[in-house]
Design a protein that fits this description.
It is a single chain. The protein is α/β, with parallel strands linked by helices. Helices cover about 40% and strands about 15% of the residues. The structure holds flavin mononucleotide (FMN). The site of flavin mononucleotide (FMN) has 28 residues, from β4, β6, β11 and α12.
Length: about 350
Amino acid sequence: MYKLLIRPLLFLFPPEKAHNITLGALRVLRYIPGARFLIRLIYKRRSKSLEKELFGVKFPNPVGIAAGLDKNGDHYNDLANFGFGFIEIGSLTPKPQEGNPSPRLFRLPKDGALINRMGINNHGVKHALENLKRDHPKIVVAASISKNTDAPNELAYKDFARSVALLYDFVDFFVLNVSCPNVPGLQHLQEDSMLSQIIDSVNEVRRYNEFSRPVLLKVSPDMDHSQLDAIIHLALINGIDGIVATNTTHSREGLSTSEKTLSAIGEGGLSGAPLLKKSLETVKYIHQKSNNLLPIIAAGGIMTPNQALQMLDAGASLVEVYTGFVYNGPSFAKQIIRHLKKQQKKKK
Ligand SMILES: Cc1cc2nc3c(=O)[nH]c(=O)nc-3n(C[C@H](O)[C@H](O)[C@H](O)COP(=O)(O)O)c2cc1C
């Protein structure tokens, strides 16, 4: 139904408009009696055998929604009804910001991909905080946080610490987004000196609290092995609880979309099918190099249930989807969960 009817209709609209229409429709469903119950009935399955506890957080299943889909934390409870085990809201910055000028989101249907240069547009951390206070999450919520675009990298640590402090009691874990390719210079935050400063300041907030909220780092798929080695080392010695691998890529390698279309689109991070190879390699590498000491949430190019399984087999503990959800529709989490359960049974 989604692929035959709803997706072709949505794809008639520019991508960001289609995104807003979809989220708007979810909001409307809140007010239709029985609608949310019906969605849960169709899409949500309990899966005892897939439940998992990781860095102190209990996940009802290992399939989550990646950062960027619910940028402001307006829809975590709407999306919970579709059977996901967790959601990363954000990325959030201390001050609201507009992001880059439109158009900034593009479909590459021939490649099952998207290119975006949103530039971390969001209503700011306080907006999300108000939502979290008012509407208690019925799903495990991670806050993806980053710095404001106008904050210099040298002071980025202040932005991260501020958001962590504000959200500390209201989310289940944090993901530090130091790998967004769409904010000039932001990926430099992955370098040793700046990343140490950010982690130190976030750890300071953790120390002042009664309990330690898990903090994960989100990495780029465009890093070479020596850069990844440095991140793994830093994460291990500084009590980072895990890695989200990966963000979108700068690469345009092997795409079927024409050069002409790609150059008309211009800059941006590529997500979806063409990203899988890189993100899978990154997951494998981090898993091996960290001796399985760093839990990994895999993201990047998971477009089929079997690709989610591939990520878990490569060493990931959980998976997240964004582009796969756009192309496959609302039943995607259910499809993945069904496949994982089947494989589990086969192994027994
Ligand atoms: C439109 C769009 C917006 C995104 N915004 C963010 C963001 O704000 N923060 C972040 O960490 N990742 C963001 N991402 C990256 C995704 O979280 C994910 O890492 C990436 O898309 C790869 O997964 P996928 O191939 O399943 O889409 C965004 C991706 C897309 C397509």
